[in-house]
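Q: Hi! First time doing this. I have a protein sequence and I read that you can turn it into a structure. Is that right? Here it is:
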Amino acid sequence: MAILLGVDTGGTYTDAVLMRDEDEVLASAKSLTTRHDLAEGIGKAVQAVLQTAAIDPADIGLVSLSTTLATNALVEGQGGRVALVYIGFPESDLGKHGLSDALKGDPYIVLNGGHDHSGNEASELDETSLLAWLETDIGASGFAVASKFGTRNPTHELRAMEMIREKTGKPVSASHQLSAKLNGPKRALTALLNARLIGMIDKLITRAEDGLRELDITAPLMVVRGDGALISADQAREKPIETILSGPAASIVGAQWMTNAQEALVSDIGGTTTDIALLQDGKPKIDPDGARVGPFRTMVEAVAMRTTGLGGDSEVHFVAEGLKGGVTLGPKRVLPVSLVALELPDLVISTMEAQLRAPAPGEFDGKFVRPVKGANREGLSQRDLDILERVDGLRPLGDVIRTRVDTQSVRRLVERGIVQTSGVTPSDACHALGTQKGWNTKAAELALKLLARRRRGDGDRLAKTAEEMAELILKQMTFQTSLALLETAFSEDDAFDNQQPSQLAQHTLLERGLEKHRGIIALNAALNVPVVGLGASASTYYPAVGKRLGCEMILPEHAGVANALGAVVGRVTMRRSLTITSPSEGIYRLHTDAGTTDFVDSKTALNEAEALLVAMALQDAKDAGAVDAKTSTEIDIRSSAVESREVFVEAFVTVEAAGRPRITA
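A: Yes, that's right. Below is the predicted 3D structure, encoded as structure tokens:
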């Protein structure tokens, strides 16, 4: 009998699950995610399940890890400082697909070079300018390289990678190694985000492996990819971008395993995000346009999922507009006040008590800031370093921010993952109401009282008591979660193609229909598929959501550790793709990483492409730890009618190799 260990490292909690033979859950446990040393949180969670199930670590045959860290980093705008080498494109292309937004002021260089659609060199690579640029003080932790038509001929990307590695020794992400599709700016964005995540994911995997070894667990470590499949730890290090939506994808796999649902929306609420996906015929739907995370649309093949910055640790914002005012949640995560109060309760509570005695509310009431241990400070300006010196431990935010310019420095430090801020969250509201326990309830109540003192447009306080303030926050959580589910439903319903899901979800008629309006007109509306609610706090937030949407709300027994469960029951699935074009009549050009090869008939080119892909996909699956992998091939031939005959334009060949991961005896 095989003993399997699943681990999920989330923004707030690290979960661990032990299973026997993929059909019996032996034990599950949670521990706070320790950002300064991820091995600490992983070790505590794993140790807890080992003790509960009385399992010898040597009996574990497989460890699988899912994580939301990459997803959260992109949603929150975090990650290392990276540099982009952009070859053969006009500089104006940096504004496409959010590429300039993703750069966030990081260095880049636009070079002559690149190829044409057929893989022929459009112009010579400007190696002189690249070398001169590399000799300057760029201060980047990694590099991204994208060349025009790099998927048709990657020669310039490969040469630029070679030069960067020789000159800097830093990791390099090449766009053609992450996607075989066209659309250079989008591939460049994917490579840029991959480079930004390399250090973070490498640290996660390294510390996870260290933590497992400390517990005498020697089984191989697998990592969940964004489409729910498993890859080896080494593959995840090389292509960390593929782990975006890893945690959410694992939760979808886990949801299907727990419920056997065939048609359902799966909504997974964590500390930072709510991730919603559609199950069709018992399988998660794959996004054909690439994974979208926050504002970015990547070329990563992943579960079709809408990720919203809404979770138990979402920052609560006061809305001053209008007479009644109110609150809104997210999209950024902050540390709950009730959680940081566990660290220094006297400081947190005495600070907020003093703020309550002030005659008027302050801008930074109930807000704190603390440094992240071991964070990379490379590339910080002197101003940001000066601000960081003030954050020598947990501090009231008002003591650190003394001018408006200081606010921008703190924001940059948060985006770089160097400091964390704390404020009121839905988790604090739940602690004040007694629906969640474990953190400092008094701190939660004080923070809510401070927020309740804010004045609405009509001059009245936002709320009279901490309890009333907490109810207001949870009502907003229900509203925003319902909105996210409705937007997903409209986006997946074919009857509403080419319409804006966000506008439909907020339409007055829909709102009245959900309320079962009865007047001269009777209106009814409801979600027509069940919702599977996942996450540790799903049982707290989601019953009200199901009631509002008029749908069945399924809350599985192990909903709080669905990610870790999905990590265990996943499969290794590797895909490889190649393109064949026809630069002239009677010529069929196969494009590979090694260059281009011409054939005189399409069948021979297709057979050669399939043979190459089968070998590559099987090797990838073997490297990922799969056993007995089987392959399947998909060929998409595109042609055009010319003078009453079909003319070959191009073909895309994809081979998938899938198998169960190897389990050690």
